[in-house]
C-alpha cells in the first residue's frame, strides 16, 4: 500500500554516473564516493548495498531510541547492525534484496528487547519503505559484540536465507485477555535494565473485567483502543495505565504508575489456568480465581495460592 506524505520534512538528491562501477554524489557535496561491484575489493570505494545498509541502520537506531523513550528506557547505548544481501530471485526481475537487523542494548535480555524491535519496525521510515517487498528479519541479541562483529562484506554468492518478517500491524496496544493467569518474569523501572524476579513471585489473574495482583491491589480493567487502565478498587489507591503487546505467549506491558514513574514488565502464562473462573468482592477485599490459581487482596496485602 502506498502512503503519501502529508508534509515534507527533508529532501535530498543524489546523482550517479557510470552505474555500479562509477560514482555517486549529492547536491550539497556531503557525499561524494566512487563505486565498485560488491565482489571487487577496490580501495576507497563502496557499493549501493553498503550505502543502503548504513542508512537503514542509522534510521532504525533512531526509531528504536524513540520507541524506548516513550516508556522511559534509555537506548543511547543501543547497537544496531543492518545486513543487506543482494541475490537472485525467481521473478522476472531476476534480482532482489534481503535485510536483517540485529540489535542489542546493555542491561537488557534479547527476549525482552524483541517487542521493542517490532514496534520500532512499525514506525521506521526505511522499514515502511521495504515492508511487503523485501524479506526482513529482526533479531535481538544479548551480547553487543555480536552486533559489532556483524557478518562483513561476504560476497559469497550464496542464496538469500533471510525469512519473511512476521506482520507487525499498527502501533497500538492490545486489550487484556478476558481470562488468564500470568507470572511476572521481570521488570524495568524508569528506563533501567530489566531485573528478573528471582525471589519475589508476582502473579496477575484476570477474570472478565476484574483483576487481582498478588502485590496487593485489585479492581477492574478498561481499554480505550490503545491503552489499558487498571482501576484499583482494593489495596494501593490510584490507577495504572499501560500498553500491552504480545510477544509469542508472553505479554509485555509498558506503563505509568500512580506516582508518575514508568515501568516495563514481562508476563509469562501460568499452567493450570483452565477450569473455574470468577471474582468475588466485599467491603475491604477482592478475590479472583482462574483455574487452579487464586489471588486474595485486602487493605493490608495480597496473597497468592495454587489449588
SSE topology:
Elements: E1 14-17, E2 23-26, E3 32-35, E4 45-46, H1 48-70, E5 79-88, E6 95-104, H2 110-123, H3 125-130, E7 136-140, H4 144-149, E8 179-189, E9 195-196, E10 203-207, E11 210-213, E12 217-223, E13 228-235, E14 239-247, E15 250-256, E16 262-269, E17 277-281, E18 285-290, E19 293-298, E20 302-306
Parallel strand pairs: 3-4, 6-7
Antiparallel strand pairs: 1-2, 2-3, 5-6, 8-9, 8-10, 8-16, 10-11, 11-12, 12-13, 13-14, 14-15, 15-16, 17-18, 18-19, 19-20
Helix pairs in contact: 1-2
Structure description:
With 307 residues, the protein is an alpha+beta fold. It folds into two domains: 44-149, K homology (KH) domain (GMP Synthetase, Chain A, domain 3), CATH 3.30.300; 179-306, Lipocalin. It has four helices and 20 strands. It has helices at residues 48-70, 110-123, 125-130, 144-149, and strands at residues 14-17, 23-26, 32-35, 45-46, 79-88, 95-104, 136-140, 179-189, 195-196, 203-207, 210-213, 217-223, 228-235, 239-247, 250-256, 262-269, 277-281, 285-290, 293-298, 302-306. The protein has an eight-stranded antiparallel β-barrel. Helix 1 crosses helix 2. The chain is elongated, with a radius of gyration of 24 Å. The termini are far apart.
Question: Topology as H/E string?
Answer: EEEEHEEHHEHEEEEEEEEEEEEE
* CATH class wording of the largest domain: Mainly Beta
Distance between the termini: 51 Å
- Ranges where pLDDT stays below 50 over 5 or more residues in a row are 153-171
